Amino acid sequence: MTERPKPTLKAALDEFLIEQQIRGNSLATVKYYCVCIGLFAVHTGEDKLMEEIILNDLQRYYMALQKRKLSTVTVQSYIRAVRAFLTWCYNEGYMSVCLPDKFKLPKAKRNAVDVLTDGEVRRLMASFVGNGFIARRNACICALMLDSGLRMNEVVSLTIGRVHIAEGYIIVDGKGNKQRIVPIGLYTRKALMRYLAVRPGCIDRAPEETPLFVKDAFTPISRTTVKQLFRKLKKRTNIPRLKAHLLRHTFATRYLENGGDIYSLQQILGHTSLEMVRRYVHTIPRKTVVNFSRFSPLDNLPR
User: Concatenated DSSP letters for 19-33?
Assistant: First the structure.
């Protein structure tokens, strides 16, 4: 049996990126791998055989990233992509040693999660003045991010057929084309009904494919539409740090503060592990101290 030839780093990367597309990963995920691993390939040598790559190449790449004065979270993200690529190469038989087993992911220094105050939330939702189509659409977009924790891409890709207002949930296409059911509150349900009442254009025979949010009767919104919206909202609300993902952080933190558990939060946010959810637990001790008598075994012991 003829042994498979060992490819160069560039050839292996090209094959890896093709497989990511075949797996159905989003364009954003493929681009993430292309940028992070591409930088590793340039630093290490694109023509270098995969079999010749050693642990020192990975260590030198890590040191080069640190010299770029990137945040520890960004460095970790770059290394994570390379680890996934090298593990894939090992499983494909392109390398005889699984280098990621020898190079542990460096711990990232995470800053405290920033969230909107209650006053800022009121100011944001009060900034949508009037009953016009654009005002109702923008209010609805912010409600879905703030009240259900949707990502920007998830809002943009949401279709009418996946919105179930009466039942109180929507079906979201998350990262990796993974669908999940996300509950929506009464405020957001009302916002959706108000928006749909004035949404331009007719709902065609395939509501599953009809974009929920549009710019006009024929054009769906894009990421650029949402980014432009938040640039305007920063000035209108006088909240300079306002951005789309801040609403998702606010939702996750308030959900836990109001009594939600991290396991259901993980499902709502669409995270594959609890590690990403645990960063929102930083606010819980303060709330626990204030409300502890509600949960204390002795305080609630029948007299």
Answer: HHHHTT--HHHHHHH
Q: What is the pLDDT of residues 172-228, one digit of tens each?
A: 887 767 788 888 989 999 999 999 999 988 776 667 789 999 998 889 999 999 999
Give me the number of domains the chain comprises.
2
Is residue 216 a contact partner of residue 200, using CB atoms and an 8 Å limit?
Answer: yes
Phi, psi (deg, nearest 5) at residue 169: -155, 160
Helices (DSSP H) in the chain: which residue ranges? 9-22, 27-44, 55-67, 72-91, 118-125, 133-148, 152-157, 186-198, 223-237, 244-257, 262-269, 275-278, 284-291
Residue range of the domain that includes 33: 9-101
In a domain, 113, yes or no: no
CATH number at residue 254: 1.10.443.10
Residues 161 and 271 placed together within one structural domain of the fold? yes
| 215 contact partners, CB below 8 Å, separation of at least 6 | 221, 225
**What's the pTM?**
0.70
> What is the spatial distance between Cα 175 and Cα 167, in angstroms, rounded to a whole number?
24
